[in-house]
Write a structure and sequence with these properties.
Distance between the termini: 18 Å
Radius of gyration: 23 Å
Number of helices: 14
Structural class: alpha+beta
Largest sheet: 9 strands, mixed
CATH class of the largest domain: Alpha Beta
Shape: globular
Number of domains: 2
Number of strands: 21
Helix content: 25-40%
Strand content: 15-25%
CATH architecture of the largest domain: Alpha-Beta Complex
């Protein structure tokens, strides 16, 4: 089962940390170009090592990190700890405040075949290679990936609840989320975290490319180190853990935008839909996401001047030719990618991950605006996927269609960094870890 370890985090010095909100940054895969320009203006912002600039970005990030250490911009904590991280947030259209509770620790970078950490999405080689290079140069994890464990007893929550009453940082991030960080140094309590996770398998919720980068880097270092013991820093990865049984774990939908389809004609397209789908016009396009909610194999189609709800006819499902296990085939998004994107729009499944005709957008309002402005030919509005579906697919050994899940909110970068350099990674002998 999964092995975790407390970390001796590198954090901004106490003076800089008084303005921690000016030092944090969104994860590299969600930060917008406009946000980046503002964040790069601060020479100490965490974006410089998570999404570095320059002709040789990894080299430049490593140089900056070295100067941060030398100048005391960041300082390593003397004691190893488990870092408790709570995120307080609201969803559009609701006044309820959610709180996603979790903690940050090192986890062994298990190979996928070991089935200790399970993925639900595939990765793209170039993005993985970029992460490997950055990890190699920095010898530092700039931000944690997001992992899920299942504990119906909620054993760890009482320790986290107690720790969070004494926060290290509290800030509001780019999503309007209140992020709060605390730390647990009590060795007995840390051991309870380690012991509980040692009985669990972990589902990788977010950060597949960063985890794959750690995994590949570990393999490289193992091959190059004849004295490999398994205890070296390169064997471990930085992860944020949350409980799948928590009520405040939210997975939001990711919609599909279509553009560049030759001879695109709305009327002819809907005639193709009629073969396998029940079609119903929607008078108010802004309500389409509510109309499809909770209905299996139902999607919203947005066009420039109209909107329709489409729902796969139950008898049409047997036509699917993709050879996935039943648990994957029956997913809404598998139905979408097969019947709509491949069969109707003509983009083969094998080409969908690289097609410039297919764009992903998590914002319903963005999709609606882009279609109205003719920046996209159409939008396909999807529903959120459940954590139970994620568990079932992971257990099957298969993965979901790309961009199936958006675990909200995203963690931020800049609260802490974690080194895998041997003299910085290893915890003091007296700590017991």
């Amino acid at each position: 089962m999964a092995e975790i370890k407390p970390i001796r985090a590198w954090r901004y010095n106490s003076t800089l940390a008084q303005s921690i909100d000016t030092l944090t940054s969104p994860l590299f895969d969600v930060v917008s170009e406009k946000q980046r320009k503002v964040l790069y203006q601060n020479p100490n912002n965490s974006i410089h090592i998570s999404v570095p600039l320059g002709n040789n970005p990894a080299e430049e990030a490593a140089d900056r990190l070295a100067s941060w250490k030398a100048d005391g911009v960041i300082i390593q904590d003397k004691l190893p700890g488990i870092y408790v991280y709570y995120q307080y947030f609201k969803l559009a259209g609701s006044s309820k405040e959610f709180c996603r509770k979790g903690f940050i620790a090192h986890v062994r970078a298990y190979d996928w075949s070991e089935n200790e950490i399970m993925r639900h999405e595939n990765t793209m080689p170039k993005a993985v290679n970029d992460r490997i290079e950055l990890l190699d140069k920095l010898q530092m994890h700039a931000s944690p990936t997001h992992g899920l464990y299942t504990d119906e007893t909620h054993t760890l929550e009482m320790y986290m609840d107690e720790a969070i009453t004494h926060p290290i940082y509290e800030t509001e991030d780019y999503q309007g989320v209140r992020d709060v960080l605390a730390v647990i140094h009590d060795a007995k309590v840390i051991r309870q975290f380690m012991d509980l996770i040692a009985t669990k398998k972990i589902i990788l919720a977010d950060g597949h490319h960063r985890y794959e980068g750690s995994l590949s880097y570990r393999k490289q270092q193992m091959a190059a180190n004849p004295n490999h013991t398994g205890k070296e820093g390169y064997n471990f990865h930085l992860m944020y853990f949350t409980n799948t049984e928590a009520d405040d774990l939210r997975i939001l939908p990711t919609h599909r935008l279509i553009n560049g389809i030759s001879d695109f004609n709305e009327e002819e397209l809907l005639e193709k839909f009629a073969e396998d789908f029940i079609i119903k016009p929607v008078e108010d396009a802004a309500t389409i996401n509510e109309i499809i909610m909770g209905k299996k194999w139902a999607f919203g189609l947005l066009f420039k001047d109209s909107a329709v709800k489409v729902r796969l006819k139950p008898e049409a499902f047997s036509k699917m030719k993709w050879t996935f296990p039943e648990v994957v085939k029956r997913l809404d998004l598998t139905v979408l990618h097969y019947f709509i994107i491949e069969k109707i729009l003509g983009i083969p499944g094998k080409d969908q991950t690289t097609s410039d005709k297919l764009v992903f957008d998590r914002s319903f309002s963005d999709c609606l605006a882009k279609v109205i402005k003719s920046e996209a030919q159409m939008a396909i509005i999807t529903q959120e996927i459940s954590i139970e579906e994620v568990k079932e697919v992971c257990s099957s050994g298969y993965t979901m269609p790309q961009k199936s899940t958006y675990f909200y909110p995203k963690v931020i970068c800049g609260f802490l960094f974690s080194s895998i350099k041997e003299d910085e990674f290893q915890t003091p002998a007296y700590s017991g870890f």
